[in-house]
Design brief:
CATH class of one domain: Alpha Beta
Bound molecules: flavin-adenine dinucleotide
CATH architecture of one domain: 3-Layer(bba) Sandwich
Order of helices and strands: EHEHEEHHEHEEEHEEEEHEHEEEHEEEHH
Helix content: 25-40%
CATH superfamily of one domain: FAD/NAD(P)-binding domain
Number of helices: 11
Length: 432
């Protein structure tokens, strides 16, 4: 098995080579903050940027180094989509709410592009578009139907690609056509996180790593928060832990389903081969329930490939092999390519497949982006920061506000039901 790995193989995210994890400059936990933020990914840093800009003393803590969670280890695909489609949502919530929910996620996509541009964050952000590939003729027929019956006002700019023209988007024997979505984008997730981190420090946030929150107690005024580095009193607390939500916030833990997502990077390859595999340099995903997602690295020299190849595996050396085999089904041309990096992380899912944000007397949260967190976490973190800072612009309604954040009886954060669900989806993907 070892001969699939390059000599310089790392069981860590490829992105960390270019952007090593930041070393916290603050060593002492202050004993008071106006706002304490738990989690230093996109949600936490974007919230903190707003609260600090509004003059609130903001402390952001993370159990690991800053950005250690999903925000420095994702695929860098920027989509602005929620999982359920308009039709499904309108059956449950009616036309107006369904429209607003889909539109809010699109707002997030517009927002992140503008934000990165205005802030001048160097993170290889590109409106490259997505190719969503059909894994069967039936799924392509479904894409054709859906493309011609999009809800009025929610049409996505893009075009269909027939199987005969597949080579314009991807050099793969695996697919049967697909859909190009023009608005989707790509970025380098760790560079984006570093840009946020730098700006959070400049705006006055204190970001403290290796400081795990173990309990949060409500007081008559504010909160008493116990961490691995001591106690801190906070006027308001923001929970920004998504797929890493743990026992410090049991109410949230009962509502988040952590699902492992796995990625690998190939060794450096001939850029001409990469251009042949993905000619338009788009981000790519496919129509399977157990989705795979892939793209070229920003320097155009590697394939970065992700998917859900295991239920429980946390050792990226072991996940690399099945993930590589999945990659070879799509790109047999990569049979000789060695794997240089393999890693995984926990994506925060929810029972209704929607992100949730809310507040309960000074305790705020935003989480559960269901695999689309690059722009949703950023945008909802920003909006949550506005709410915590009680800014006038925070009063504009966020479509996700007030959605019931569901749990299930006996669920405590350990998703025992994943194995049968994944097996069911594997069969469904084969039949569909
Ligand atoms: C392999 C992989 C690929 C992905 N690809 C994509 C993609 O291409 N596009 C996309 O849109 N999304 C993708 N995602 C999802 C996306 O990265 C996340 O939704 C997003 O980064 C969530 O940001 P966050 O700030 O809410 O949480 P995170 O970035 O996960 O941060 C949560 C932080 O909370 C900290 N924490 C937890 N508990 C405590 C505690 N008690 N005390 C202190 N700190 C605590 C953790 O250490 C962690 O750093 C992917 C995720 C993974 C794992």
């Amino acid at each position: 098995m070892n001969d699939i790995f390059s000599d310089d193989f790392k069981d860590a995210p490829y992105w960390w080579d270019g952007t090593p994890r930041p070393i916290s400059t603050v060593t002492l936990l202050p004993d008071q903050a106006d706002v304490l933020i738990v989690g230093s990914g996109y949600t936490g840093l974007n919230a903190g940027l707003v609260t600090a800009h509004n003059g609130l003393k903001t402390v952001i803590v993370d159990a690991e180094t800053a950005g250690w969670g999903c925000s420095s280890r994702n695929g860098g695909q920027v989509s602005g989509e929620i999982k359920p489609g308009y039709t499904q949502l309108s059956r449950k919530y009616g036309h107006d709410r369904a429209y607003a929910l889909v539109q809010e996620a699109r707002n997030a996509l517009d927002w992140i592009g503008e934000f990165i541009g205005t802030e001048g964050i160097a993170c290889d952000f590109r409106r490259c578009g997505r190719f969503h590939a059909a894994h069967s003729p039936r799924q392509f027929a479904r894409q054709v139907h859906e493309f011609h019956h999009q809800a009025k006002g929610l049409e996505r700019p893009g075009h269909l690609v027939e199987k005969t023209d597949l080579g314009t988007e991807i050099d793969s024997p695996f697919y049967h056509g697909g859909l190009v979505i023009d608005s989707h984008a790509s970025l380098d997730p760790a560079r984006y996180h570093q840009g946020l981190y730098d700006r959070a420090l400049t705006s006055g946030c204190q970001v403290i790593g290796n400081c795990k929150v173990t309990s949060i107690k409500r007081k008559s005024e504010g909160f008493d928060v116990i961490t691995g580095q001591g106690r801190i009193r906070a006027g308001k607390v923001i929970i920004a832990t998504s797929g890493y939500t743990g026992s410090a916030t049991p109410w949230h833990q009962r509502r988040i389903i952590p699902i492992g997502s796995y990625m690998l990077a190939t060794e450096t390859l001939d850029p001409a081969l990469i251009r042949q595999l993905i000619p338009n340099d788009r981000v790519i995903s496919d129509t399977r329930k157990l989705v795979v997602y892939f793209r070229a690295s920003p320097d155009g020299r590697r394939i970065l490939f992700g998917g859900r190849v295991s239920v429980k595996e946390t050792d990226p050396v072991r996940s690399a092999s099945p993930l590589r085999l999945e990659m070879l089904r799509i790109f047999p041309q990569l049979a000789e390519a060695k794997i240089s990096h393999s890693w995984m992380g926990f994506v925060g899912y929810t029972f209704d497949n929607l992100p949730h944000l809310g507040e309960d007397h000074g305790l705020y949260y935003a989480m559960g982006y269901c695999g689309s967190g690059v722009c949703l976490a950023s945008y909802f973190g920003h909006r949550l920061g506005q709410q915590a800072a009680a800014r006038p612009d925070s009063e504009s309604e966020i479509a996700m506000n007030g959605l019931r954040f569901q749990t299930r009886p006996l669920y405590r954060g350990n998703p025992w039901f994943l194995a049968p669900t994944i097996r069911y989806y594997q069969i469904k993907d084969r039949l569909n």
